[in-house]
UniProtKB/TrEMBL annotation:
This is DUF1697 domain-containing protein. PANTHER family: BLL4334 PROTEIN, DUF1697 DOMAIN-CONTAINING PROTEIN. Pfam families: DUF1697 (PF08002).
Amino acid sequence: MARYVALLRGINVGGNKKVPMAQLRELMEGLGYTDVATLLQSGNAVFTSKEKNPAKVIQQLETAIAKEFGFEVSVVLRTRDELAAVIKANPLPGAEDAPSQFLVTFLSDVPEPKRLEAIDPAAYLPDEFRLVGREIYARFPKGIGESKLATVLTGTRLGVTPTARNWNTVTKLLELADR
């Protein structure tokens, strides 16, 4: 059995791609997943599956969501242990002191280095970011809402599927996965 965290990209934002969490939980239970729980309305689900191949789980979820809701949703998946490692690997200090200023962008894969190198960090100061594995950690001292960097990191520029969560959500997902 594997414990997973599914991060759905771009749902329930501005009235678009509405996915009620109760309906998502039912859908996931219908796929045979157990201990299903959701966090917030932004597409965060924690569950247990007999399937140990993450690619198969992603494919199952994306197919079932498209069939159930009538639109495509990209799913980025991490195991419980991968999520714990993400929290531990944070290279930017101070996340616990100002969690609303920190964002973790979860990527479907490691981006090609040339794509990341094309982003000039000096152009976005005082915002900063670091890539560690399949995650981009970013700090936004003036807030995420006004940041041009946040838009760059969560867009399609990196050539992989991104979905971002603030530090509070990331740590709460691990707590939920540990229940």
